[in-house]
Amino acid sequence: MKILPRLILIAGFLTGVNAWATDTYDSTSNQLTIPTVQVGSTTYTNVVISVGNVLSIGNSPANGYADIYNSTNGQLMIPSVLVGSTTYNNVIITIGSVLSVGGSFSNQSILSENTSAVTTSVQDYPQIYPQYGYGVGSPSFIEFGNFGSKNANCFVDAEILRGGSISSSTLPDAPLYVLCQQPNGSFKEVSQQFFGRQLYINGGYPLVADFNNDGIDDIFKIETWDNSESSNTAYSMVSNINGTYSVINIPITSNQYSFNLNDQNTAIDLNHDGCLDAVNAMGISFIGDCKGGFSNQQLNNDLWQTTYNLGTGICSGDFNGSGIQQLLITDGHTNISPNQPNSIFEVGDNGHLIANHLLPVPYWNVFYNASNATHNFSCRVADINNDGKQDVLIFTRPWAEFTSNIWTDQSYIQVYLNLGNWNFLDISATAFPNYNTNTSGSYSSRIIDFNNDGYLDVALMGSTWQGISNNGNQIWINNKDNTFRPVFTNELTSLYSNYQQQFGTGNGGYTSNAKNINSMLPIQVNGKWNYIMQMADLNGNYHIGVANTQYTFK
After folding, report:
1. Taking Cα atoms as reference points, which of 391, 385, 389, 386 lies closest to residue 413?
2. Judging by beta carbons within 10 Å of its beta carbon (0-12, 13-18, 19+), is residue 73 exposed, middle or buried?
3. What is the C-alpha to C-alpha distance for residues 14 and 99, in angstroms, rounded to an integer?
4. Residue 491 backbone dihedrals phi, psi, to 5 degrees
5. Is the distance from CB of 453 to CB of 424 less than 8 angstroms?
6. What confidence tens digit (pLDDT) does each residue in 212-257 have?
7. Residues 6 or more apart whose Cβ sits within 8 Å of residue 490
8. Which of 151, 302, 387, 445 lies 20 to 30 Å from 405, alpha-carbon distance?
9. Checking DSSP bridges between strand 31-39 and strand 42-57, what pairing results, if any?
């Protein structure tokens, strides 16, 4: 075995599998897999560590069955270990670092912003996506909600199953998972408990909202693919009084153009009847009945059909202070002003679009001097300067045809400040100073007050597509002057790197060298911020976990 200086083990943090057996050492990675280990009076199983120094190697026979860790001198006694084809007995070593604890990642090098040391473990759900022989596509889509009960702290994770780089109805659908915080702060996958079975619904962007007005979040999702196949089914998962969910299939009968609907939807009371509806960016509305049921219809009126050609992203907000929500649709490809593809639509009582307001020209259109260069793939609505007006953030990247027909890791954040009376000021150039445009874009962002100063901050989830050294998973804190500053840059990059090293670098259906950390998004646990992690390993299996970072942002 290698003799290498390593970090010191934090005592008592070992855990692992369900059998007493010989340890296995991998000389390539310097990793030791321990079936069973005793720490004091506690027995743990399925531990993976890196080896520090080999202190001694004894003789046969093996002295006992389980490894024993002495927290006083930091030594691990191994009764039996297999190295290649050779078995060694009664080996004593020091620990380098703990890599997994019963499938959980450990990293002792993360510091919180107040410089106090924080032990970071990731509760991992290995191979949570079954291996179909296909790639589960980047990015992953995560949304947050109080699923199952009013005080629950949960998130839903959706994926797109792809063969190569294209999803299709000929492939199996990707599973939908829900993870909720348990009393001890850990997270448990509870989708089958909620739904009574494992759900498989291909497509991203689950829509989370309370559609039946019981104070508990529900989920709405349309089955979609990357190609031109027509979307025929939507699903609503509606909470019941006993904490379970009813899964309602919604046939899409109004898709008169027979196109594949977009992943993205927004919750809005479209027809002003007091019930939340869902609207798809491609022009289909689903009218809610306040019970979780929906009927669908085309956004069928002159304004939409003659002026706009479908859309990509969709959000809703009260942009004029009228008390009535309006629709923001991106990539609308307007015929009136082709260089301005993003618009806000006012909605009448009948659910029809009655007026539109163009947003400023996006960055990539200017960069490439082309009216169709910008892919405005996602949006968020938030009051970033506390003036009572809803501002707009649109997450963009160049269309592949402008980057040699390759989807590159490039991105830009459009920030439009609401000045009132349908006037929006483009402050994108100054809002995120020194933002690296050679970074993967945020398909699932969080806008929330991370440091409790009363101003909204921004968390970016940067999925990798072609492999990149720049971490797109970032936290930007509001400076209260219409600008943001990045924090925890080194810590998040370290967390990204260490979790990646645990499983290797999977391709996720894309290039063989892609470093697919698909998601890193913060979730609050016990008043501090842990990190959701999702990635592909070298075998194409996907993992999702929650890093116990307990960050405090300032």
Report:
1. 391
2. exposed
3. 10
4. -65, -45
5. no
6. 999 999 999 998 877 667 778 899 999 999 999 999 999 888 655 5
7. none
8. 445
9. antiparallel
418 vs 161, 321, 346, 379, CA distance in Å?
38, 11, 16, 15
279-316 pLDDT tens trace: 988 878 899 999 999 998 877 555 655 566 668 899 99
Alpha helices per DSSP H over 152-238: 191-195
Residue 214 CB neighbour total at 10 angstroms: 15
Distance of alpha carbon 517 from alpha carbon 440, whole angstroms: 11
Q: pLDDT tens for residues 356-400?
A: 899 999 999 999 999 889 999 899 999 999 999 999 999 999 998
| Angle at 220 (CA atoms; ends 343, 272), nearest 5 degrees | 55
Instruction: Give the Cα separation of 272 and 325 in Å (integer).
Output: 9
Average per-residue pLDDT for the chain: 79
Model confidence, pTM? 0.75
Residues facing residue 55 across a β-bridge: none
Q: pLDDT tier at 408 (50, 70, 90 boundaries)?
A: confident
Q: Exposed, middle or buried: residue 368 (CB in 10 Å: 0-12, 13-18, 19+)?
A: middle
Residue 368 three-state SS: helix
Within 8 A by CB and 6+ apart from 478, the residues are: 384, 453, 455, 456, 457, 458, 484
> Are residues 180 and 147 in contact, defined by beta-carbon separation less than 8 angstroms?
yes
Among left, alpha and beta (phi > 0; psi -120 to 50; other), residue 291 is alpha
Of the candidate ranges 63-72, 193-202, 232-241, 449-458, the one whose mean pLDDT is the lowest: 63-72
Q: What proportions of the chain, in percent to the nearest 5, are helix, strand and coil?
A: 5, 45, 50
Tokens (6 digits) for 236: 């609503």
Task: Give the bridge partners for 544, in sequence order.
Answer: 125, 534
The DSSP call for residue 320 is: S
The DSSP annotation for 290-302 comes to SSS-EEEEE--SH
